[in-house]
Amino acid sequence: MRAYFIRAADGHTALETREVPAPEPAPGQVRVRLRAAGLNRGEFIAGHGLTQPGAAKPAGMEGAGEIDKVGAGVTQFSIGERVMGRVPGAFAEFGLMDVREMVAVPGALSWEQAGAVPLVFFLAQDMVLDQGGLRAGEWLLVTGVSSGVGVAALQTAKALGAKVIGTSGSAEKLDTLKPLGLDVALHTRAADFRDPVMKATDGRGANLAVNTVGGTVFGECVRALAFEGRLAIVGYVDGVLKAEMDLEALHAKRLKLYGVSNKLRTVEQRAATVRGFTRDLLPALAEGRIKPLIDRVYSLDELPAAKARMEANAHVGKIVVRM
Question: Which of 11, 45, 211, 292 is the most exposed place for a label (fewest CB within 10 A)?
Answer without folding.
Answer: 11
